[in-house]
TrEMBL record:
ATP binds at G230, G231, P232, G233, T234, G235, K236, T237. Keywords: ATP-binding, Helicase, Hydrolase, Nucleotide-binding. Residues 1-36 are annotated as: Disordered. InterPro entries: DNA_helicase_UvrD/REP, P-loop_NTPase, UvrD-like_ATP-bd. It comes from the Bacteria. It comes from Glycomyces niveus. Gene3D superfamilies: P-loop containing nucleotide triphosphate hydrolases. Residues 209-586 form the UvrD-like helicase ATP-binding domain. This is AAA family ATPase.
Amino acid sequence: MSQEPGPARAARPDAVEQDVDTTHAVPAPDPSSTPEQEIAIEQGFVDRVYARVDVLRGEAEGNRDTGYAHLAATVPGARYERDVFVYQAARRIADLDSQHEGLVFGRLDFDDGKVRHVGRLGVRDEEYRTLLVDWRAPAAAPFYRATAVDRQEVARRRVIRSFGRSVEEISDDLLNEDAADRLPVIGDGALMAALGRKRTGRMRDIVATIQAEQDAAIRAPGRGATIITGGPGTGKTVVALHRAAFLLYQDRSRYEAAGILVVGPSAVFMKYIGRVLPSLGEETAALYSLGELYAGVEATRQDRPEVAAVKGGTVMLPILRRLVRQTPPGAPSELRIVYRGDVFKLDAAELAAARARVFEKEPRPNLAKTEAGRALLVALWRKIKPVIEDAEPAKFSRDVGSRGEFLTFLDHWWPDLDPADVLGWAGDARRLASAAEGHLKKEAIEAVSASLRETDFSIPDVALLDELRILLGVKPQPRNRDRIRSWDGIQEVSTVQDRYYDRPERQARDAFYEDYAHVIVDEAQDLSPMQWRMLGRRGRGAGWTIVGDEAQSSWPRPRESADARRRAVPSGRLHEFHLTKNYRNSKEVFEYAAEWAKPRLRNIDLPEAVRETGVGVAQKTVAADTLMPEVAGAVVEALDAVEGTVGIIAPYDRHAELAGIVHDGRVTLVGPLESKGLEWDAVIAVDLETVAASHGAGVAYVVLTRATQRLTRIDLD
C-alpha cells in the first residue's frame, strides 16, 4: 500500500449549491449604520475570506511540495496517486493566484435574514461550510437576476468594490421596500459607477455588474447554438467571454479536454479582450483572430472592400478547385525514359492527359503521388508495348518505377504542394484568369491578382489558405500511442507526472485543431462565407455561441453569409438572446449615432442608452489642408477632458499622416474595421463619409458608437 499524501477536504474551495448560508460570517445589519461602518463590516468579512485563502494556498503549496518529495515512489499506483496530487495542488495554487484581486464583490441579503456573499471563486471555511459562492454557481444567480419585479426572495443586493484586499466602496440596491427598516442602503448604483470609470485599453470582466438579460445568455446550455444579438454597447462580447468561463465551470472535463475556441475579427480586438478570461481564472480557451486561424500566418492587412468581397465569396470555391489542378510552376514538360535500348517520351500534352487521369481518381494532389506515378507508368507502357512486344507489364513497372531518374522526375512533376505557394500562383493574372474563367470579370481578376502579389497575406487570404489545405489533402499525422510504459516488466498507463512534468510543457492547440467542444464567434455579422467554412471545420461536433448585430455588418451579401453559417454550424437546439441596453455610450453619443444610421440602415436595432453625461457630440467640417492640425487639436482637448483612452478612427489612406500626431500612450490610431468591438473614453472620427463610401454605412455606424464619454467628428469640405 502506498504511503502518499491524500487530499485535504478543506483544500478545495469549490462552489457548491448546498449550505450557502453565510450569516455566521457577518454581524446582523443595523439600519442606522453609516457608509464607513458598513464598509468596515464588509472589510471584516473580506479579511476573513483572504485569511482562509492564504491557509488554502499554504496547504496547496505543502501538498505540492510533499508530492515532489516522493519522487522515489516505485509502485505504479503510488506514482499515479502522487502525480495526480501534485498536479491538482499546482492547479489550485494557480487558480487562487489568478483571482486574488477583487475576490469578494457581492452580497445578497434575503427576506429571511440569511446572507450570501458572491465572489470570483468558491471558498469554504475550516468546517467545510461555504464562505463565498462562485459567481458561476446556480446559488449566485439571484445576484444577477433578482429585480424589484422578480426579487427571488432577495431583500438587498450589495456590490463591493475593492483594491487589492481593501474594500473601497459599496453600493446597494434595495429590492424589498419592507426591509428598509432593518437594512441600511448605501451608494448610488454600482453599474453606473462601473460604466463611468476610465477605459484602460483592455476590456475588463463584469462579474460584479452582470445584468439579468446578460446573465441569462451567459448561463445558456453549452450544446446546440446560442445566438446573442444586440445593438452597440450591449455587452455582447464580454457576455460571450463570461460564457466561456461559465461553461468551463459547469463541465470542466469536457471543455478543457476538447477545448473552447474564441474567434474575433482582428489582432487588435484579441489583444483588447485578452485579459478577460485569465482575470476570471480561465487560461485554457484558445483565442484566435480571423487572421490567425492558419498555422504560421498572422495576417493583419485589410483588402480593399471590393477585393475582400470576391475573396470571401463562395465564387472562390470552383476557382480554388481549378487552381490546385494546374501544373505547378517549373514542373518538367517532357519525360524521357530509356527501356531496353529504346527511348520513349511523354510530351507536354501527354503529361497533361496523365495529370487529368490522376485527378479523376484522387482530387487531392498531396494524397495522389502514388496515383501520379501509376499514371506515368501506364502512359509509358502504352508507348512501349507496341514497340517491345515481349515486354511484361509487371516487370516493366518494377524496373522503371524504381529508377532514380523516374522518381526524381515524379518529385518535380508532382511535388507536395503548400497552400501558401498555390495561393501565390494566383498572383499571376494569367493563371488566375484560367482558374476563374466563367466566374470573375477581368477587373476582379486583376484586382485579386494584384492583392495576392503583396508580400504578406491579408485577413481574407487566411480562409483561402485553409480551403486550399483541405483541397490539397492533409496527410494523416501519426498519433502518439506511447501511453503504455513498462516498469520491471509490468505495463502501466503513463501518469500525470509523465505528461505534465517529465515531458515538455503541453503546447496550445494550434490553428488547425478541429475537435473543439465549443466555438464562440464574435462580430459574426462580418464573417464571409469562406470564413464560415473555415470555422465550420474547427467545430464539426461543437456547441456554438454566435454574437453579432446585423446593422454593424461590413459584409455586402448577408444572405450568402447566412447560408454559409447554416452549413457551418451543426443543426440542433437553438437558444436566442437579445440584449436591449447600451452600457457603453452616453445617451448623447448614441442618439447622435442612431440619428445618423436610421435613414441609412434597414432593420436597425437601437438599444436604450442607460446614462447621460451632458456632453454633446462635437462636429466640424474643415479644409483638407487643415485636417491634421484640427485632429491634433481635438486629441489635445480629448486628453484634457478624459482620464482614460482616446481613439482616432480614420480611413486607411489617412493613417500615414495621422500617425505623426500620436505621441501619447493613451491615444490609439485604428482603421474603421479594426475599431469593431473596441471602445475609448473619447473618439475622434475622421472623414466619416469616406468610411461609409468605402466600407458601408454599417461600418460607419460602428465608428460612431465607440466612445463612452465624448465623440468628435471631423469631416472634409
